[in-house]
What does this fold into?
Amino acid sequence: FELPVHFGRLTARENLNYFASLYKGETEDVGHLLERVDLLDQADVRVERFSKG
It folds into this structure.
């Protein structure tokens, strides 16, 4: 995930929803996960705009 080759144009929320859709089990609410890592305010920002440092 260091380089946004495939998923950089997706937002943080879209990335989490995409990867959750690949998992066959029960998943947590994406908004709750973003809140837990203090990224809820960045949920709709493309990940290519995130700091890599």
Observations:
- The helical segments are 12-22, 30-36.
- The radius of gyration is 11 Å.
- Residues 12-22 form the longest helix (11 residues).
- Residues 12-49 form one domain.
